[in-house]
Amino acid sequence: MTPDENHANQAIQSQKARQFDLLTQCAPGFPMGTLLRRFWQPVAQSAKLEKGRSLPLRLLGEELTLYRGESGSAYLVAGRCAHRRESLHNGWVQGEQIRCMYHGWRYDGSGLCNEIPAEKQARNEPVRIAAYPVHEYCGLVFAWMGELNADGTAPEFDLPRKHALDEPGRSYVILEQVWDVNWFQQIENSMDAVHLSFAHGWGKVGRFAEAITSVIPDLVYSETAAGIRQIATRSPTNVRISDWTFPNNNHIVAPGPGKDDPWTDISVWAVPIDERNTRRFTLYAYAAHVKPEDLDTVFQPRIHAEWMSQEQRIPATDEAGEITAQDYVATSGQGTIVDRTKENLSVSDAGIVFLRKVFWRELDAIVNGRPTKQWSRLDEAPELPIPEIQATAG
Ligand code: FES
Ligand SMILES: [Fe+2]
């Protein structure tokens, strides 16, 4: 390679790297940060937030404090006090307000500082910290961190497949994990149907394995009102359909825990904590009579990943834990933030290519001040092209 060619090659590589950075960076001010804030995001489990207590959170690169007032309402405000940056989580919840432990500044749930005990005179300008609307649903606290309506309210709470979760009599179980992997690798994993035959093709994955064979699937991807539908056909009676919903949720329908149980709706969110860590919430909406499992103990990423990657040992957990552990091993094994400039994509990576194009289109609209797509609910069930379908999770 001549010096000129080498220089041109480096320029192309660095332009590619910038394109890929757009996908992974989600702190305030980055295009992806703006995009992700235009959707309701799950931030914590309701059960972990007691009345009169607070939790420190990091979300989309921002430090936050989530607290529950004495009335039972939850509030999400900035992580630090406006005075001298004390962590508000160290303070006290009083009524519906939170007081900083350092010098006692007190904030309400809208972020307004309404008491400064050591100051005799009121300030001319009110002091405010960030505050975001929250909504509790199915045992999760969701937050709206994007722009508000003109009247200061958040857009109506909605989820792309909410009707499936809403069905009467459902019981809900939540699995929460932190993965030390950039969030976008996990989104790409959802759009990668081939990995099922390998990453999930060993171990004791039970009912899941019954429908997964080493056959490489035929793949079809299409954009829906809510995201991307992928259809992976391994045989005429083995077709896996999943509705990935924009920008960071995957809705899966999978066999229930017992042999004769009806299928379960599973909704998975990969919510960036920052560029290197992701909080994953998996919401299992079981049919009425199914006894939900206790999923809290199923999977500890570091322990199980070590077993699986170094000793080829399977975690002594249930099937759901094993599948998740395999996904963790696969995505963390790429590196915390995979270097996409060094990839060699092929035809079977059509889903990854499709996914990135959709994101780049939306990010381009944000960068250039154009409207993004109006993603909406996906009310219809996936139409399966053949009878006796075997659809599975992954
Ligand atoms: S740092 Fe919070 S009151 Fe001083
Ligand atoms: Fe998987």
Quick overview of this protein structure:
This protein is an alpha+beta fold. It contains nine helices and 18 strands. Mean pLDDT is 86; it is low at 384-394.
Structure description:
It is a single chain. The protein is α+β, with helices and mostly antiparallel strands and 394 residues long. The chain has two domains: 41-143, Rieske [2Fe-2S] iron-sulphur domain (Rieske Iron-sulfur Protein), CATH 2.102.10.10; 162-367, Alpha-Beta Complex (Naphthalene 1,2-dioxygenase Alpha Subunit, Chain A, domain 1). The chain is 24% helix and 25% strand. The protein is built from nine helices and 18 strands. The chain has helices spanning 3-24, 31-36, 162-166, 183-190, 195-198, 206-211, 301-311, 319-332, 350-367, and strands at 41-45, 54-59, 62-68, 74-78, 92-94, 97-99, 106-107, 113-115, 131-132, 134-137, 140-143, 171-179, 218-223, 227-235, 238-245, 249-254, 264-272, 278-286. A seven-stranded antiparallel sheet has the order 12-18-17-16-15-14-13. A four-stranded antiparallel sheet has the order 2-3-4-9, with no helix packed on it. A hairpin with a 2-residue loop joins strand 5 (92-94) and strand 6. Helix 7 packs across helix 8. The longest helix is centred in the first third of the chain and has 22 residues, at 3-24. The chain is globular, with a radius of gyration of 23 Å. The protein starts with a helix and ends in a 27-residue tail after the last helix. The model is unreliable at 384-394 (pLDDT under 50). The structure holds FE2/S2 (inorganic) cluster (FES) and fe (ii) ion. The site of FE2/S2 (inorganic) cluster has 9 residues, from loops.
